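Hi Q.,

Before the meeting this afternoon, I wanted you to have the dinuclear copper ion prediction in hand. No need to reply - just skim if you have a minute. The sequence and ligand are here:
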Amino acid sequence: MHVHNYEKLWLGASLLLIVGFISTIVYGAAGAGITMVNDEGGQVNPQELGNTSGFDDPGVTKVGPNEYEVHVVGIQFAFQPSTMEVPANSTVTFYVTSRDVVHGFEIVGTNANTMVIPGEVSKITVEFDEPGEYGIVCHEYCGAGHHSMAAELTVTE
Ligand code: CUA
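Predicted structure with the ligand bound:
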């Protein structure tokens, strides 16, 4: 069988394209510096949150002079707790998980933004220097009540 040089060139070019497409996908999913899911908070059983330390009683816990931890559970269509309060000049670490479907957790006006996935604990640390009111919203479509899934964070004087 005789294959023309021109044909070989096109075979080679299309192979390169396929390899290129695959590496783009792999890079997007696992490439350095890209974190699509923050799971450094570890894993939990979404059915056992009631028996999981922190998530059994979601809310604000003082863990140091200016340090707080906040455990948050996302459910269709609310955050537990729905209101939280920390003083200004504090460092707050949020541990967020879901009891049902994938939600989002965004503190409006900050760069705190994470996916909330059943079985995974998303951990984000935020420093609040000034008093103020922050809305927290779900930014992943999670069902009919998605738009009403929100909470309030108050940073007091
Ligand atoms: Cu929860 Cu959208």
